[in-house]
Amino acid sequence: MVRVLLDRRGRTYAEEAGIRLSDRPGPLYQLLVLATLLSTRIRACLAVDAARELFAAGYRTPQAMEAATWQERVDALGRAHYRRYDERTATMLGTGARLCLDRWHGDLRRLHREARGDPAGLRRRLTEFPGIGPTGADIYLREAQAVWSDLRPYVDRRALAGAKRLGLPGSPDRLAGLVEEPDFGRLASALVRVALGEESAGEVTRVAAR
Protein backbone atom coordinates (compact mmCIF):
# COMPACT_ATOMS: atom_id res chain seq x y z
CA MET A 1 0.00 0.00 0.00
CA VAL A 2 2.83 2.40 0.82
CA ARG A 3 4.48 1.67 -2.51
CA VAL A 4 1.24 2.46 -4.34
CA LEU A 5 0.77 5.64 -2.32
CA LEU A 6 4.29 6.87 -3.09
CA ASP A 7 3.89 6.04 -6.78
CA ARG A 8 0.65 8.04 -6.94
CA ARG A 9 1.36 10.92 -4.55
CA GLY A 10 5.03 10.73 -3.69
CA ARG A 11 5.88 14.39 -4.29
CA THR A 12 6.21 16.79 -1.41
CA TYR A 13 4.48 20.16 -1.51
CA ALA A 14 7.92 21.79 -1.72
CA GLU A 15 8.68 19.83 -4.87
CA GLU A 16 5.37 20.86 -6.40
CA ALA A 17 6.17 24.49 -5.65
CA GLY A 18 9.48 24.19 -7.48
CA ILE A 19 11.61 24.37 -4.34
CA ARG A 20 14.83 22.40 -4.59
CA LEU A 21 14.99 21.80 -0.90
CA SER A 22 18.42 21.75 0.70
CA ASP A 23 19.99 22.97 3.91
CA ARG A 24 20.72 26.41 2.50
CA PRO A 25 19.19 29.82 3.29
CA GLY A 26 17.30 30.27 0.00
CA PRO A 27 15.34 26.99 -0.10
CA LEU A 28 14.66 27.06 3.64
CA TYR A 29 13.16 30.54 3.32
CA GLN A 30 11.13 29.50 0.27
CA LEU A 31 9.70 26.66 2.35
CA LEU A 32 8.65 29.22 4.97
CA VAL A 33 6.80 31.18 2.28
CA LEU A 34 5.06 28.00 1.14
CA ALA A 35 4.09 27.08 4.71
CA THR A 36 2.64 30.57 5.19
CA LEU A 37 0.53 30.20 2.06
CA LEU A 38 -0.62 26.68 2.96
CA SER A 39 -1.70 27.85 6.42
CA THR A 40 -4.74 29.78 5.19
CA ARG A 41 -8.13 28.20 4.55
CA ILE A 42 -7.52 27.74 0.87
CA ARG A 43 -6.95 24.74 -1.38
CA ALA A 44 -3.40 23.44 -1.27
CA CYS A 45 -3.08 23.58 -5.06
CA LEU A 46 -3.79 27.34 -5.00
CA ALA A 47 -1.20 27.86 -2.27
CA VAL A 48 1.38 25.94 -4.31
CA ASP A 49 0.55 27.99 -7.41
CA ALA A 50 0.88 31.19 -5.40
CA ALA A 51 4.31 30.15 -4.16
CA ARG A 52 5.41 29.45 -7.72
CA GLU A 53 4.20 32.90 -8.81
CA LEU A 54 6.06 34.63 -5.99
CA PHE A 55 9.25 32.74 -6.81
CA ALA A 56 8.87 33.41 -10.54
CA ALA A 57 8.62 37.12 -9.70
CA GLY A 58 12.02 36.82 -8.01
CA TYR A 59 10.92 36.79 -4.37
CA ARG A 60 13.04 33.80 -3.38
CA THR A 61 14.91 35.38 -0.47
CA PRO A 62 13.77 37.47 2.49
CA GLN A 63 15.73 40.39 1.04
CA ALA A 64 13.83 40.19 -2.25
CA MET A 65 10.47 39.62 -0.53
CA GLU A 66 10.88 42.68 1.67
CA ALA A 67 12.19 44.82 -1.19
CA ALA A 68 9.06 44.09 -3.27
CA THR A 69 6.23 46.52 -2.75
CA TRP A 70 3.07 45.41 -1.04
CA GLN A 71 1.21 45.81 -4.33
CA GLU A 72 3.75 43.68 -6.19
CA ARG A 73 3.22 40.87 -3.69
CA VAL A 74 -0.56 41.25 -3.98
CA ASP A 75 -0.32 41.13 -7.77
CA ALA A 76 1.78 37.95 -7.72
CA LEU A 77 -0.74 36.27 -5.40
CA GLY A 78 -3.59 37.45 -7.60
CA ARG A 79 -2.04 35.90 -10.70
CA ALA A 80 -2.29 32.55 -8.90
CA HIS A 81 -5.95 33.27 -7.98
CA TYR A 82 -4.95 33.47 -4.31
CA ARG A 83 -7.35 36.38 -3.95
CA ARG A 84 -9.38 35.83 -0.81
CA TYR A 85 -6.36 36.35 1.44
CA ASP A 86 -4.04 38.20 -0.93
CA GLU A 87 -3.83 41.57 0.85
CA ARG A 88 -3.41 40.14 4.34
CA THR A 89 -0.90 37.55 3.12
CA ALA A 90 1.12 40.15 1.21
CA THR A 91 1.48 42.09 4.47
CA MET A 92 2.45 38.98 6.44
CA LEU A 93 5.08 37.98 3.88
CA GLY A 94 6.71 41.40 4.10
CA THR A 95 6.67 41.40 7.89
CA GLY A 96 7.92 37.83 8.03
CA ALA A 97 10.79 38.61 5.68
CA ARG A 98 11.87 41.47 7.96
CA LEU A 99 11.71 39.18 11.01
CA CYS A 100 13.79 36.55 9.21
CA LEU A 101 16.44 39.17 8.43
CA ASP A 102 16.43 40.79 11.85
CA ARG A 103 16.29 37.66 13.99
CA TRP A 104 18.19 35.09 11.92
CA HIS A 105 20.07 37.23 9.39
CA GLY A 106 18.03 35.68 6.58
CA ASP A 107 19.31 32.18 7.37
CA LEU A 108 16.87 29.72 8.95
CA ARG A 109 19.72 27.32 9.62
CA ARG A 110 20.36 29.63 12.56
CA LEU A 111 16.83 28.95 13.81
CA HIS A 112 17.54 25.22 13.54
CA ARG A 113 20.81 25.53 15.44
CA GLU A 114 19.24 27.79 18.07
CA ALA A 115 16.57 25.17 18.78
CA ARG A 116 19.20 22.39 18.70
CA GLY A 117 16.94 20.35 16.48
CA ASP A 118 14.24 20.08 19.16
CA PRO A 119 10.85 19.91 17.40
CA ALA A 120 9.04 21.79 20.18
CA GLY A 121 11.64 24.54 20.13
CA LEU A 122 11.48 24.76 16.36
CA ARG A 123 7.69 24.94 16.38
CA ARG A 124 7.75 27.71 18.98
CA ARG A 125 10.21 29.79 16.95
CA LEU A 126 8.38 29.21 13.68
CA THR A 127 5.10 30.44 15.15
CA GLU A 128 6.75 33.81 15.75
CA PHE A 129 6.36 34.44 12.01
CA PRO A 130 3.08 36.13 11.05
CA GLY A 131 0.69 33.67 9.47
CA ILE A 132 2.49 30.63 10.88
CA GLY A 133 0.46 28.96 13.61
CA PRO A 134 0.77 25.39 14.90
CA THR A 135 -0.49 24.01 11.58
CA GLY A 136 1.97 26.09 9.57
CA ALA A 137 4.84 25.04 11.83
CA ASP A 138 3.84 21.40 11.33
CA ILE A 139 3.82 21.90 7.55
CA TYR A 140 7.29 23.43 7.67
CA LEU A 141 8.81 20.72 9.83
CA ARG A 142 7.09 17.90 7.95
CA GLU A 143 8.73 19.11 4.74
CA ALA A 144 12.03 20.21 6.31
CA GLN A 145 12.72 16.74 7.68
CA ALA A 146 13.97 15.89 4.18
CA VAL A 147 17.07 18.00 4.91
CA TRP A 148 16.99 18.24 8.73
CA SER A 149 17.45 14.55 9.43
CA ASP A 150 17.37 15.07 13.21
CA LEU A 151 13.62 15.71 12.84
CA ARG A 152 12.82 12.36 11.29
CA PRO A 153 10.36 10.80 11.65
CA TYR A 154 8.16 13.91 11.91
CA VAL A 155 4.43 13.21 11.53
CA ASP A 156 1.76 15.81 12.14
CA ARG A 157 -1.93 15.42 12.92
CA ARG A 158 -2.98 15.44 9.28
CA ALA A 159 -0.48 12.78 8.24
CA LEU A 160 -1.64 10.56 11.09
CA ALA A 161 -5.25 11.06 9.97
CA GLY A 162 -4.26 9.89 6.48
CA ALA A 163 -2.51 6.85 7.92
CA LYS A 164 -5.66 5.98 9.88
CA ARG A 165 -7.80 6.13 6.74
CA LEU A 166 -5.47 3.64 5.07
CA GLY A 167 -5.22 1.34 8.07
CA LEU A 168 -1.51 2.06 8.45
CA PRO A 169 0.31 2.27 11.80
CA GLY A 170 -0.52 5.24 13.99
CA SER A 171 2.92 5.95 15.41
CA PRO A 172 5.78 7.83 13.71
CA ASP A 173 8.33 5.10 14.41
CA ARG A 174 6.16 2.33 12.97
CA LEU A 175 5.35 4.41 9.90
CA ALA A 176 9.07 5.12 9.46
CA GLY A 177 9.72 1.40 9.36
CA LEU A 178 7.69 1.13 6.15
CA VAL A 179 10.08 3.18 3.97
CA GLU A 180 13.74 4.01 3.56
CA GLU A 181 14.69 6.94 5.81
CA PRO A 182 15.13 9.54 3.00
CA ASP A 183 11.63 8.71 1.69
CA PHE A 184 9.80 9.40 4.92
CA GLY A 185 9.06 13.03 4.11
CA ARG A 186 7.46 11.93 0.84
CA LEU A 187 5.32 9.41 2.72
CA ALA A 188 4.21 12.03 5.25
CA SER A 189 3.15 14.40 2.45
CA ALA A 190 1.30 11.61 0.67
CA LEU A 191 -0.59 10.76 3.86
CA VAL A 192 -1.61 14.40 4.21
CA ARG A 193 -3.06 14.29 0.70
CA VAL A 194 -5.19 11.32 1.75
CA ALA A 195 -6.37 13.19 4.84
CA LEU A 196 -7.27 16.27 2.75
CA GLY A 197 -9.10 14.21 0.13
CA GLU A 198 -6.58 14.97 -2.62
CA GLU A 199 -6.04 11.22 -2.88
CA SER A 200 -8.68 8.55 -2.38
CA ALA A 201 -7.94 6.10 0.41
CA GLY A 202 -10.33 3.64 -1.25
CA GLU A 203 -8.54 3.86 -4.59
CA VAL A 204 -5.10 3.37 -2.99
CA THR A 205 -6.42 0.35 -1.11
CA ARG A 206 -8.02 -1.06 -4.27
CA VAL A 207 -4.88 -0.71 -6.37
CA ALA A 208 -2.69 -2.14 -3.61
CA ALA A 209 -4.93 -5.21 -3.37
CA ARG A 210 -4.50 -6.16 -7.03
TrEMBL record:
Family annotation (InterPro entries): DNA_glycosylase
Organism of this sequence: Micromonospora luteifusca
Protein name according to UniProt: Endonuclease
UniProt superkingdom: Bacteria
